[in-house]
Amino acid sequence: MPYPVPPLGICLLAQTIKHKYQVKVYDSLFDEGKNLISLIRSFNPDYIGLTIRNIDNMIIDSTDYYITDIINLFIKPIRQNSSAKLIIGGSGFSIFPFELFALFNADYGFIGETDENLLLLLDCLENNKPIENIEGLITKSSERGKLKRRSNAGEIFNLHFSEIDKHIDFNPYKSRGVYSIQTKRGCRHKCIYCTYPLIEGGICKIRTPESIAEEIEQAYHRQGFITFEFVDSIFNDPPGHAEAICRALIKKNIKIRIRTMGINPQHCSTEMFKLMLKAGFTQIDCSPDSASPAMINNLKKNFTVQNLYNTARLIKEYNIPAMWFFIFGGPGETETTINESLDFIDKYISTDDMVHITTGLRIYPGTDLHCLSINDGIIKNNTNLLMPPVFYISKQLNKEKISHILKTIALTRPNCIPASESKPDPEMLKQALELRKLRKLDEPMFRTLLRIRKSRNKI
């Protein structure tokens, strides 16, 4: 909420294997398990692949756990109604592979990228061939530390067109959702809390701009005027790739809306924003996490405060709607560093743009924050980080104090939304959809929701 996300990863896998196997994709986002059993019984699959995107909502004040629902709505019905081999993967699974593999009693699991290796596994199982050397594969006999991880060699990779709308019913996504496009995988940066390098690798592997533009053009001709979203962890990295994608799209001369997450302040320029507007961008996300020089350094971000100022100036100059993301409470955070970020928000971010504010950092295994948390005595080496989630809060602050600060921020700045309030209530969402239809609004959904929030606060 408020943006439903289509299952890009599973559709990519379906594209990879459909030339050799009969494939059906079950999209649980709107159906929530209701028609799963009937599909299993009618299709009678030999293998069932289940992808897990998120473990929980990563909100310290109101944690919503997804694991129990996944077991009750999907794992149990699958096991009760099918003898198919269960193969599990996805970004959420890749962070806690052995824990979830055991919890779900899976037959096979994949860490990180799967792509051609899923096809290899199926071929081996069908032909009774050994599977021990398949990269990233977990079996019931796998041991921690001995897993053959996928290599990340190469800087350019070929990716099947996902053709999401051919595998699922795309109609529910049209009103406020997106058509997801991936332009690259991997992240070379070292943010202390981030799991992207663990999931996709530490080498940035890019698709050619021409293939990206061609995929978008084909989807546009199938679906008409829809919104596309680049779902890379960072859109404008490595330098020049974002600009090349925009030029390729401009050549296609098609009328599309585009948004993207992960604008990195280090590589923002006048040329990039001009090209993005010409290509069809109507919204961006920028997640600096902090505007304090000390915190930018502590979080091991790759940009400077001056880069951040320049990015904010360009966003205002070119009037691109933006959602900003800040995290308060990381290592070394103090009231002074929080005030530095607030000063930036007040001076550089439009009140029409949303600022998403989060308390604390979710600790994930294998990250620098994990090691720091052990050294600081927040957790032990054997602490279970899956359930319940554990968060890092600066030693100079505490959970109650920082929560009070963030509540004050939200009360005095209507466009600053705490993570616990970022999911709009059904009535607000209904009102937003009606308002957009009545006024024929083409603005990003977050601006419509902010408009309603501000009017409610006045009342």
Please describe what this structure looks like.
This protein is α/β, with parallel strands linked by helices and 459 residues long. The protein folds into three domains: 32-112 and 114-138; 164-424, pyruvate-formate lyase- activating enzyme (Alpha-Beta Horseshoe), CATH 3.80.30.20; 425-459, no CATH class. The protein is 41% helix and 13% strand. It contains 19 helices and 15 strands. The chain has helices at residues 8-17, 28-31, 36-43, 67-81, 91-95, 97-104, 116-126, 164-167, 196-200, 209-223, 241-252, 270-279, 293-298, 305-317, 335-348, 368-375, 399-412, 426-439, 445-458; strands spanning 47-51, 85-89, 108-110, 137-138, 179-181, 184-185, 205-206, 227-230, 257-260, 281-289, 322-328, 354-359, 361-362, 391-392, 416-418. Strands 5-8-9-10-11-12-15 form a seven-stranded parallel beta sheet. Helix 12 links the parallel strand 9 (257-260) and strand 10 (281-289). The longest helix has 15 residues, at 67-81. The protein is globular and about 65 Å long. It starts with 7 loop residues before the first helix and ends with a helix. The mean pLDDT is 91.
The gist of it:
The protein is built from 19 helices and 15 strands. By secondary structure, it is of the alpha/beta class. The longest helix has 15 residues, at 67-81.
List the helices and strands and how they pair.
Elements: H1 8-17, H2 28-31, H3 36-43, E1 47-51, H4 67-81, E2 85-89, H5 91-95, H6 97-104, E3 108-110, H7 116-126, E4 137-138, H8 164-167, E5 179-181, E6 184-185, H9 196-200, E7 205-206, H10 209-223, E8 227-230, H11 241-252, E9 257-260, H12 270-279, E10 281-289, H13 293-298, H14 305-317, E11 322-328, H15 335-348, E12 354-359, E13 361-362, H16 368-375, E14 391-392, H17 399-412, E15 416-418, H18 426-439, H19 445-458
Parallel strand pairs: 1-2, 2-3, 5-8, 8-9, 9-10, 10-11, 11-12, 12-15
Antiparallel strand pairs: 3-4, 6-7, 13-14
Helix pairs in contact: 3-4, 10-11, 11-12, 18-19
